[in-house]
Amino acid sequence: MSEILLTGGTGYIGSHAAVELLEAGRDVVIVDNLYNSEAAVIDRIEKITGKRPSFYELDVTDKAAMESMLAEHDFSGVMHFAGYKAVGESVEKPLEYYRNNIDSAVTLLELMAEHGIKSMIFSSSATVYSKSDKVPYVETDPDTGCTNPYGWTKYMIEQIMKDAAAAHPEMSLVALRYFNPIGAHQSGLIGEKPNGIPNNLMPYITQVAAGIRPKLNVFGNDYPTPDGTGVRDYIHVVDLAKGHLKALDYSEQNTGFEVFNLGTGNGVSVLDLVKAFERVNDIKIPYEIAPRRAGDIATCYADAHKANQILDWHAELTIDDMCRDAWRWEKQQRGL
Ligand code: NAD
Ligand code: UFG
Question: Which of 113, 118, 122 is nearest to 75 (CA)?
Fold first, then answer.
């Protein structure tokens, strides 16, 4: 069987997708410039699966280097994870976000068209819905635009994919709108490794649990939600990775542009997640109510019916699994 190219495959979500693909018997080639990950992830993927993916340390926007890599392989599909992803940073450095995220997607689509590679699975985000106040979010919701440059890169790349699919009818381009991926592989060997102070809730909680940070700041308890704290659709990263396999199967049998939400369909508050983490891992998480964080919305969760029905994909792992696996990963990294 021909190979699948994973850009950003040493990163958090890409590494979990690599594991699922290898375990499903697919051949995997990873391209990553190691901007936000490390080459040792390849060893860990091999340790989990018993198979070593080919790895190229290169930038997806470097078309000549990508051409040389492509000459050595026979790809039938691409999963495009590579990109910058920090919402706040994108407000400070919009041009870097547009350059890296848009350029890498366009470069890849050009190469696909030139080399006859049919399928692309793209990491989009629920952030494309963030100006809407109607939940759950459905793929057919009208475009409302985005609240930050990072979100706009996802929005624009979806539009570029739509236009490319119309012009190249043999192509099958799928955008997956992730909700809030958390947790880690059950082996404890791969997971999310934020640089510096984590922006996201779960890595912050695990660092409080590890004693690296004294307490969690809960950003607002006056939202119109059951306990006043922000509600999100947390999805286990392994479930998310499995969704990519289903999307790949779908794209191999179809053509055109399609978009799917990948979420559980359940909203969980900040305090719900803290309580679940404390219960499952038997660790107290000290927290303090802090002011709302700029740009946050009250509630965000998916209508996941489209992926359930068309991809035959359902999130299976629970909030308890997410809390247990995230903590196992944090302990493994810290040698606890
Ligand atoms: P990550 O930072 O762990 O992984 C992204 C990888 O891409 C990194 O290893 C980085 O080194 C690499 N990369 C970045 N620019 C590159 C380039 N030009 N060439 C080659 N490699 C490059 O992030 P992640 O959490 O695994 O996210 C993967 C994708 O999913 C991203 O596109 C992100 O925007 C999207 N996404 C993530 C979340 C989330 O909460 N983690 C939510 C929605 C969407
Ligand atoms: N939160 C805290 N304290 C923290 C961190 C977060 O209370 O230290 C709260 C937030 O206010 C929010 C919830 O926890 O209510 C989740 O926050 P995250 O930062 O973990 O996730 P977001 O929903 O803000 O953002 C995520 C991704 C973005 C993506 C967005 C869109 O990180 O990339 O989902 O769905 F754009």
Answer: 118
Q: Where does ligand 1 bind, in terms of residues with CB under 6 Å?
A: 7-8, 10-14, 32-37, 59-61, 81-83, 85, 100, 104, 123, 125, 178, 181
How far apart are alpha carbons 162 and 105 in whole angstroms?
Answer: 12
Look up tokens 């955008």; give the residue: 175
How many other CB atoms are found less than 10 A from the CB of residue 243? 26
Q: Which ligand is nearest to the CA of 127?
A: 2
Instruction: Give 249-288 pLDDT, tens digit per residue.
Output: 999 999 999 999 999 999 999 999 999 999 999 999 999 9
> Measuring CA to CA, how many Å separate 286 from each of 202, 261, 264, 275?
14, 33, 27, 11
> Which pLDDT tens digit goes with each residue over 177-230?
999 999 999 999 999 999 889 999 999 999 999 999 999 999 999 999 999 999
Which token pair is 288? 């303090």
- Supply 62's token pair: 């470097």
Chain segment 101-140, per-residue pLDDT in tens: 999 999 999 999 999 999 999 999 999 998 877 899 999 9
178 part of the active site: no
Calpha distance 94→149 (Å, rounded)? 6
**What is the separation of C-alpha 106 from the centre of its chain, rounded to a whole number of angstroms?**
19
Q: Which residue, chain included where needed, has tokens 């102070």? A: 197
CA distance 152 to 132: 14
pTM equals 0.98
User: Residue 150's closest CA among 83, 215, 200, 103?
Assistant: 83
- Is 28 in a helix, a strand, or coil? strand
Instruction: List helix spans (H) across the chain.
Output: 12-23, 40-49, 63-70, 87-92, 94-97, 103-115, 149-167, 201-209, 237-253, 270-281, 305-310, 319-334
Which numbered ligand comes closest to the C-alpha of 177?
1
Residue 300 phi, psi dihedral angles, 5° rounding: -150, 110
Pairing type for strands 231-232 and 268-269 reads antiparallel
Give me ligand 2 centre to Cα 87, in Å. Answer: 10
